[in-house]
Hints:
Calcium/sodium antiporter, mainly alpha, calcium, potassium:sodium antiporter activity, transmembrane, 12 helices, K/Na/Ca-exchanger, A middle domain of Talin 1, two-stranded antiparallel ribbon
Amino acid sequence: MTYLLFALGLVALFFGGEALVRGATAIARHFRLSPMVIGLTIVGFGTSAPEMLVSVQAALAGQPAIAIGNVLGSNIANILLILGISAVVAPLIIPVKKLWRDLGFMLLATATIWIMLLDGNVTRLDGVVLIAGLIVFLVTAFMTSKVETPEVELGDSPQWKAWAMTLGGLVVLVIGARLLVDSATELARAFGISEAVIGLTIVAVGTSLPELATSLIAAIRKQTEIAVGNIVGSNIFNIFGILGTTALIHPIVADPRFASIDMIWVTIAAVGLSVLAFVLGGLPRIAGFVLMATYAGYVALI
């Protein structure tokens, strides 16, 4: 039964990611928005649903610090592992002019949360600041997209189908990720793998599976803007949206290791992605291998 659930999880991730990419692309064409903006918002925020669920549940249970580890670990995996794999499968080459603003917001979000974690607390006021950052990002992204994106021919397909495909894809992705994480954990325990290794690998990457499925399929379909926008948007939303919401629900008392250890890796990932994107004009296969090797080093060290 466990093997069947594992297989069903994989199938759900594939078809959910395929539906999400197709639907999001159709929405972008209809509203004359760039695929990058759709990737940053609808796709990026949507694939962060597992992280949001975990963080809000932790906050309501009086364990808001779990939200920090969830978000930081997800941001590291999103860049080093998921973009690394996606770039190896299909080079993610995007003009720098389409990346600089959004990478800048990601770096700003990273710096902001690091500063907030230095005193060991993320207060409700900090939560308000983070949510405000998310609003500024969204307004800037949509306003800029409307100016930069040329008009295109609208398809004959009804918009409700595109939205249904997008939302349905998100739901299937979340269900698939849950099935895969639960079944993989059971299989790991059956083979005698320790709880620590399970936590650092299966569970840590588990909430990022929707991003992995979506970015991989987008890369294979040559929708590179959605593939990259999905990850950058997810990382921005994880910090501004998820930690902002969690802090508003329950102020976060953070373990000192988050600021002294984990934030260093989050920053290395964010800065590394930005440097590679600007120097190489995107993420060619060699950059993908570099990101994956860095993630392997991170897992080995922790």
